[in-house]
Design a protein that fits this description.
By secondary structure, the chain is of the alpha/beta class. The chain folds into two domains: about 1-255, NAD(P)-binding Rossmann-like Domain (Rossmann fold); about 260-365, Rhodanese-like domain (Oxidized Rhodanese, domain 1). The chain has 15 helices and 14 strands. The chain has helices at about 1-5, 5-10, 15-25, 35-45, 80-90, 110-115, 125-140, 170-175, 185-190, 195-210, 250-255, 270-280, 310-315, 330-345, 355-360, and strands at about 25-30, 50-55, 95-100, 120, 145-150, 150-160, 220-225, 230-235, 260, 265-270, 285, 305, 320-325, 350-355. Helix 4 packs parallel to helix 5 (about 80-90). The termini are far apart.
Length: about 375
């Protein structure tokens, strides 16, 4: 059965049974089972990767379905990792799949990735990408990085030495993390659904090339792809010195952000803190997402003020003392909190829900 399942790649020149056995012995962790993770996982499972780990704490939403091709309408509200695992087992029951319905943080990632040979990062925010990068660099685990935005995608491989002995990581590409709310993700900018399918498939191909040692993987090279023009180009990367990587577990954990991040103008909070503040008198929670965005929140608890109408709102007088801003991923809410603070200064307590609804959906009253 196995030889028949993989026959078309077994007969490839330069592949054969030896490469297939390497795939069967490989352990690959895919972080983010969304637009990039879904196509990558389909092809990794179909190719016969022996052990696949799936990390994602999110549930399926209707707005996911145009690009996250492992899910259907009947899956809405279910955990992505559980649905994905079920579909992948149906596709290939000969492989082992382990699910981790959890949100990546510095205090849990080392335990998650330590037993895997390769990590594929299909996440959609900078904070998590830096955490994944630092953990992989600390444990010397190869990292396949994939990202999409709008009509463009990027792909690279980190933490492997090339023929010249050079080894790069994500911080060589972006040594200075962007400021809070500075760069929106696809939830804010949008993305053409087929694009993550292309980039996710390419990421799966790079994983397979690394494991089987065929071809020329994108080690220390960044591939940039534009779906509108079908143009692509590569950038050669070199290691820099504008950053410090952790050398011990203690160093790694010291870099951890607190659940609440105190900024001059606002306070970043988690869902538990939101509920605590919600019980205080004179509290207003503002959802700055646009009218078309889902999930819909209870209008009795969350006031809808889209970012496109925020200036009109700020022109009015707000009587509440505690003002919490929320959005899909905690990016626009930061901008809103900063703008609100410019008007009211320290006369009010201003907050932003860190990670947004995407992170805390199961903890909010919807």
């Amino acid at each position: 059965m196995a030889s028949e399942r993989y026959h078309r790649q077994l007969i490839l020149k330069g592949f054969g049974e030896e490469a297939q056995l390497k795939l069967a012995s490989a352990k690959v962790l895919v972080i983010g089972v969304g637009g990039l993770g879904c196509p990558a996982l389909q092809y990794l499972a179909a190719a016969g990767i022996g052990h696949l780990g799936l990390v994602d704490d999110d549930t399926v939403a209707l707005s996911n379905l145009h690009r996250q091709v492992l899910y259907t309408t009947t899956d809405i509200g279910k955990l992505k990792v559980e649905v994905a695992a079920e579909r992948l087992v149906e596709m290939n029951p000969e492989i082992e799949i382990i699910t981790y319905p959890t949100y990546i943080q510095r205090n849990n990632i080392l335990n998650l990735i330590q037993d895997y040979h390769i990590v594929l990062d299909g996440t959609d925010n900078f904070e998590t990408r830096y955490i994944i990068n630092d953990a992989c660099a600390l444990l010397n685990i190869p990292l396949v990085f994939a990202a999409v935005d709008g009509y463009e995608g990027q792909l690279a491989i980190f933490n492997i030495k090339d023929d010249n002995g050079i080894c790069t990581n994500y911080r060589d590409l972006f040594p200075i993390p962007p400021k809070k709310g500075e760069i929106p993700n696809c939830a804010e900018n949008g993305v053409l659904g087929v694009l993550p399918g292309i980039i996710g498939s390419l990421a799966a191909a790079e994983v397979i090339k690394l494991i089987t040692e065929i071809g020329k993987p994108l080690i220390n090279r960044l591939l940039h792809y534009n779906i509108l023009t079908l143009q692509q180009y590569e950038l050669n990367m070199s290691s820099g010195s504008d950053y410090t990587l952790p050398h011990t577990v203690a160093d790694f954990l010291k870099m951890e952000d607190n659940n609440s991040c105190e900024i001059d103008s606002y306070l970043e909070i988690d869902a538990t803190q939101l509920k605590q503040i919600q019980q205080k008198p004179s509290t207003l929670i503002i959802d700055v997402r646009e009218e078309f965005e889902v999930p819909l929140l209870n209008p009795d608890l969350y006031k809808k003020i889209p970012m496109s109408k925020l200036d009109e709102f700020l022109a009015q007088e707000v009587t509440a003392y505690h003002v919490i801003f929320i959005c899909q991923h905690g990016i626009r809410s930061i901008t809103a909190a900063e703008n609100f603070h410019k008007k009211y200064g320290t006369s009010k307590k201003v907050y932003s829900l860190k990670g947004g609804i995407a992170k805390w959906r199961n903890h909010l009253t919807i």
